[in-house]
Amino acid sequence: MSQKKKILLVDDSQTVLLMHQLLLADRGYELITARDGQDAVETAMAERPDIIFMDVLMPRVDGFAACQALRAHESTRDIPIIMVTTRGEPQNVQRGFESGCSDYITKPFNVNEFLDKLERYLDQ
Asked: pTM for this structure?
């Protein structure tokens, strides 16, 4: 039996985390969560998820800084990071990629687009 793929969901909104968890719960993934960028970095280093879905605007450490920190550590450097945010302006998308994210989804997003990106990165 293959090992469950581990997904780290990062958002300061408990409601958003719950929505993502409900969306993914029946798909056989192991879901872990973090409430801000600092928690995301610590959790990713401890748990080694297969993929990270991370909000941009969060307290303490935002998604851009967390992404940069994750890319700076050898143990988390290659984990796909998808920014999921309402900040879809071109300068924010560019900043996300400059910070090291693998992909960028603007909320509200199409559920099928979200799942397609997830499966594409997990299949790599």
From this structure: 0.92
Q: Cβ of 33: how many Cβ atoms within 10 Å? A: 17
> 6: closest CA among 26, 23, 22, 28?
28
Report whether 40 contacts 64 (CB < 8 A): no
Could you tell me where the DSSP H helices lie in the chain? 14-25, 37-47, 63-72, 90-99, 111-123
String of DSSP letters for 13-35:
-HHHHHHHHHHHHTTT-EEEEES
Judge whether residue 53 has pLDDT over 60: yes
Neighbours of 123 (CB within 10 A): 7
Count of alpha carbons within 13 angstroms of residue 3, beta-carbon side: 6
How far are the Cα atoms of 51, 74, 93, 98, 118 from residue 68, in angstroms, in the given order?
A: 15, 12, 14, 9, 21
